[in-house]
Each structure stands twice: as C-alpha cells, then as structure tokens.
Specification:
The protein has 27 helices and 15 strands. With about 650 residues, it is α+β, with helices and mostly antiparallel strands. The radius of gyration is 41 Å and the shape is elongated. It starts with a helix and ends in a 6-residue tail after the last helix.
C-alpha cells in the first residue's frame, strides 16, 4: 500500500490489509481519493466531486471492497475499452468493457442498449443519446449489474444476494466519475464511440433537422427510430417545406409513431383545422415554420411538443396572428402567463393561458416588438410589455378602436398611470362611505357613485383632477362625488359633486370634464336633474353630523390645533384645490365656531356689494370668488354650510338696499 493510501484511510479494517503497490494513474487509486473525500478527509477538495458518491451507510466495508474490484477490472479493460461487432443485416454492436453495449442499425431501425450474458446478449428498452451514448447513468448501471457476480466478496457463496438499488447507483456513479477523469476515456466517450454509432449521412441529417427541441449535436435514440420509420414521408415533406419538419415530427410522436402515411403535411393540416384553428392559422404556420414554437418548446420540456404548439398557435390566432415575437419577448410572455414548475422543469402551458390578456393588447405588443426586433433597447420594451400585461390584468380594461389606433405609446402611458394609482392607494387608507344615489343608467350615460377612497383616487387620475384630496370630506358626509360615464365604453366623461346642508338637502357644486374642463350642457343638465330628484326624495335629517370611520378621526383632529371645533376655509375660486385650503382657527364651543364662519362669509359679501346688485348676482360672486368655511369637530361632525348662509344673507342685504343688518 502506498504512502498516499496510508494517509487517506477509509476504514481501519480495510486499510490494515496488506496490498500490492497501486499506480497513481489507476482507477483504484483514484477511488481511494474519492471515497476518502466522501468520508470527511480533504474537505477543501470536496467541491470537485458529486455528492451522490457518498459511501452507502449500509455495510460500507462491503461497498468499498466491491468498488476496489470494479476499479481493478476497469483498469485492465481500459487497454481495449471498445470493440465493434458488425451486424450481417447492417449496423453495429459497440461493446464497452465487454459488459454492456449499444446496437445501432438504420436498416433494421433498431436502437437499443445491450447487456452481455456470456456469448448471448440481452436488449434493454432504454433511450440513449447517439452523440454522447455514455453521458447518462444507465450504461454504468448496466455495467455494475453485469459485473456484480465478480464484485461480491470472496467469503460470500452462491447464490448471491441481489444488488440493491442504492449500492448499484453508488457504484455506477463512482464508475462514471472515475472514468470521466481519464483522457483516453474522454476521447472514447466524445469521439470514438459516437463515430462508431453514427448513422448514414442523409439519415443523420434528417434526424437532426426534425428535432423539436434541439440541443447541440444530441440525437435521442427514440427520435432517430421514429424518423427512420417515416424517412420517406419526412424526406418528401422536407422537399416541399423544410421549415415544417420539427412540427411534423412532433405530430408523428403525438399521434402514433407506427402509423404510415405518404403526405404528412396534408395530415398535419387536417389535424390543425380539426383542433379549431382557421385556414389563416395554417397559412401562418406554413409561412413561418416551426420557428414559431421554438421558444415554447424550450420552456415547456415536459409537455408533448405537438400539444405545446397547438396551444401556442391558439394564443397567436386569438391575437390576430401578429408577426412572430422576438424570442426574448415570447419567453417573457410565456413565463408571465403560465404555471412555473420546478426550476429545472420549465413551465406548463395552460389550455387557455392567452385568455388572461386582452388580445388587442397582445397584437399591438407583438407588432411593436417586431418593429424593435433589431433595436439594442429591446430589453426596455420587455419591461414595457410586462407592465402593460400587468395593467391589462389589474384593470381588466377593454380596448376600443380609437385606443387601439393610438398605439403602443398610449398603452404604456396607461400602465404608468396605473402604477401611480397603485402607489397612492398603497399610501392611503382604504375607506368606504354611504351614498345618497346608487348606480343608475340614463340614456347612454351611466352615473357611478364614488363611494370609497380607492374610487376617488382612480377617478382623480383618470380625469386629471384633485378628487383624491376630498376623501375626508366625503367620509364625514359633507360632500359626495359621482362619475358620469359612457354606458358602452365605460369611459368617464365628467364628474360632479354634491354638498349637503344641515337638513340633508344637496347642492350641486359643479360638473367638470377632463382636467377640470367645462362639461357639455347635456351632462350638466343630467347632474342638475339627479340632484333635484335626490332632494325631493331625501328624508330631513342632520346629514352633516354623520361621523366618519374611526381611522379618520385622528386625521381630522390634526387639521385643527388645540380647540374642540376647527374652522377650515376653502377658496371657491380654486375649487377642489386642496393646496388652497387654510385654517381659520380652533374654538372651544360650537357657537363660537359658527360665529367665526358667519363673520368670514359676511366679510366676503361686503366686498362684493354694489349699488343695485341682485341677490342672485351677489350669491354668484360669492360662490365664484369668496371663502368657503366649514367646521370639523373631533367627533367627525361638520355642522355649517357657508353657501346656505350666504344665500340667506344675500336676500337680506339686497332687501336692505345693499346694507348688512
């Protein structure tokens, strides 16, 4: 036993046995290092090996003994690791270490693994890679199972106990790891054996071209077997439309690998049309070929390739058969709208995954992606695309012809606006309040009550106004706001507010369109009619004493300073502008707060008095330019209407000849 062997003992009883000198190039010497590392020695080098090589816990001495014997055999077999046995009918048996092999015959269409049993051999139904036949663990498992009778310790008698799966896999993994370190074996594995199993050039080329999920030079034995069985039909289809070969192969594998038909393209067309796809979809597939499905096939490796292609085609047809998206965009889309499996198993395409996104948006996105295909900023578009997808799902928005004509930039602006809405919603408290009117339809208009903070914020961003600043006033019952929308498109066209007096009677504040522009006469008349009908049916009650939600009371208290009643002042000239609001002061009693409000209204009216002015003109001047005080108390009640008081004072002033009394 060498000095290195003594420095890396495996088990005391094994290391104590005398042994002949072991060459440092031998597999047995390497196995000592491997199993030694696995048992806790030289841990700094452990990262270079596979964790599967840990010695089995059950009877480890026996496992190490069998490993030594296997290494001794492989060392001797490396002198002539492969020998070829030509077949009389064409093809070859390639035997590795004389224990296991590969049978490849394009004439017989046979691709199988072999297990040696003396002068006979047993075919094993298992797939392998013709370009790298020794890459998988299966050949090494066959090697261990065949060699097992020679590996058992000498003190065991026949019949031997069957080899368990854990020991077999461990020995196979050790054999694979040790052999792959040998340069001669590397050449055998990557060059000599693949060349020995290589198919005739035309057949080999046909098999490579018809792969749905190509990975370098890899060629699956089952795929080659199916391709050779239908080589005549595939060759004919290759002459007619070579771009369809991978899809045709996926179709053959899905339907029945044994069926025989001369015109595969006609059969494929009948199958696609029979699955509900249109003639236009078939022409789309013929024009673009199997490259349409390349990304989908690579991302969903565990689903049948033909089923993936049909679902992906259905999604493209729902979007109007747009230009095929760039691979990075298609990958982002598929990952966003399908179930992600384990990290190494890809995604699973749902039967109707495209139904989660508006088809018009998808068509516009793919058209834009096609224009930016060669742009260096395509990754920026992917972010926009995913953002618009999120907006479409979040809002469930429907796109009309005018919006579709506005193009991709309009959709991006909608996504960014929704982002702003979500940021504000995340910072605001979610509050709801009762409304006097419910949602009603009048002609081709629909009136929607804005009965929550979320609704006010969304309406504020949609109409570009400051409705979101009036959440507190709506919550405590001072005002209510409604949205007038088109009943067909659900687009907001105007919004109006109602302010209530002490008896619950509402006064129309104003009717404004987009960005506080003047609304049409039709919408203003509609708002006036609704307020009039509401006042006729309203029950007399102290409406403005309705308390807001508990979470609002702390916010209301902060609007004041020290007193129980706080007088806040809005500027009628800056209607719905929260920044123009100011505090007049805080008062200990309700009466003192009322007097302060009345005094401010009287002061404003005094400025607008002119000789011969009418009550209506004076009130209009006040509502346009005057101050609008209101009271906020700690309990949330607001008990003063400046406009009602101003209307009473205007009548008194004009009756007294323009003098206040």
């Amino acid at each position: 036993m060498t000095q290195m062997r003594r420095q890396i003992p495996l088990f005391p009883d094994i290391a104590a046995h005398p042994a002949t000198r072991i060459s440092k190039r031998s597999l047995r010497f390497q196995s000592d290092r491997l199993t030694g590392l696995r048992n806790g020695l030289l841990q700094r080098e452990a990262r270079h090996f596979f964790p599967e090589c840990f010695v089995p816990r059950s009877n480890p001495q026996r496992a190490i003994h069998m490993l030594y014997k296997m290494c001794d055999y492989l060392d001797s077999a490396m002198l002539e690791p492969v020998w070829l046995q030509p077949l009389a009918v064409g093809g070859v048996n390639a035997w590795v270490f004389g224990l296991m092999g590969f049978r490849v015959s394009s004439e017989l269409n046979v691709f199988t693994l072999l297990e040696s049993h003396g002068e006979s051999s047993l075919e094993i139904d298992a797939e392998f890679n013709l370009a790298r036949p020794l890459e998988s663990l299966k050949p090494y498992q066959i090697l261990v199972e065949t060699l097992y009778p020679a590996l058992v310790p000498d003190d065991e008698t026949y019949p031997y106990q069957p080899i368990d799966d854990a020991l077999r896999d461990w020995l196979a993994q050790c054999a694979e790891t040790l052999l792959k370190r040998d340069p001669a074996y590397q050449r055998l594995m990557k060059v000599d054996l693949p060349n020995a199993l290589r198919l005739p050039q035309p057949i080999h080329q046909l098999c490579l071209q018809s792969r749905a999920r190509p990975v370098g030079p890899e060629l699956n034995s089952r795929h080659a077997q199916i391709a050779i069985a239908h080589s005549d039909a595939l060759t004919s289809a290759n002459l007619e439309n070579p771009k369809l070969l991978p899809l045709l192969m996926a179709f053959i594998e899905a339907k029945n690998p044994t069926f025989d038909v001369d015109d595969l393209i006609r059969m494929l067309k009948m199958e696609i049309l029979g699955r509900g796809r249109s003639e236009a979809a078939w022409r789309y597939v013929c024009r673009n070929g199997s490259r349409l499905f390349k990304v989908a096939w690579s991302l969903a490796p565990r689903q049948p390739a033909f089923e993936v292609a049909l679902r992906y085609l259905a999604a493209l047809e729902a979007a109007g058969l747009p230009p095929p998206p760039p691979p990075s965009v298609a990958a982002a889309w598929l990952r966003a709208f399908n179930v992600n499996q384990a990290y190494d198993s890809g995604i699973e395409l749902g039967d109707d995954f495209h139904g989660k996104m508006n088809p018009t948006i998808l068509r516009l996105a793919f058209a834009e992606a096609d224009q930016r295909r060669s742009s260096p900023k395509l990754n920026d578009f992917i972010q926009e695309f995913l953002g618009v997808c999120w907006w479409s799902q979040q809002t469930g928005a429907s796109i009309d012809k005018n919006q579709a004509h506005a193009g991709w930039s309009w959709l991006v602006n909608q996504w960014k606006a929704e982002q702003s809405v979500q940021e504000v919603l995340a910072q605001a408290k979610s509050i709801t309040w009762p409304m006097q009117l419910t949602a009603i339809s009048v002609g081709h208009w629909q009136v929607i009550p804005l009965s929550s903070s979320d609704a006010l914020i969304r309406e504020s961003f949609a109409m570009r106004n400051c409705l979101r600043d009036y959440i507190v006033r709506c919550a405590v019952g001072v005002e209510e706001y409604y949205s007038i929308r088109d009943s067909v498109t659900n687009k907001p066209k105007a919004c109006f507010g109602i302010r209530f007096d002490d008896l619950g009677q509402g006064t129309l504040i104003d009717v404004k369109g987009f960005a506080n522009s003047n609304s049409s006469t039709e919408l203003r008349d509609l708002a006036y009619q609704l307020v009039s009908c509401m006042n006729l049916t309203a029950k007399p009650k102290f409406t403005k004493t309705r308390s807001g939600p508990p979470e609002l009371q702390a916010d209301e208290a902060t609007e004041g300073e020290l007193g129980h009643y706080t007088v806040m002042v809005d500027d009628n000239f800056h209607y719905m502008d929260e920044s123009a609001r100011r505090s007049l002061g805080s008062y200990d009693t309700f009466d003192s707060a009322i007097e302060a409000c009345k005094g401010l209204v009287d002061q404003c009216l005094e400025e607008y008095i002119e000789p011969g002015i009418s009550a209506e003109r004076l009130l209009s001047q006040y509502k346009t330019f005057g101050d609008d005080p209101f009271i906020v108390c700690a309990e949330g009640g607001v008990k003063f209407s400046a406009w009602d008081y101003a209307e009473q004072r205007c009548k008194v002033i004009t009756e007294n000849g323009g003098r206040q009394k």
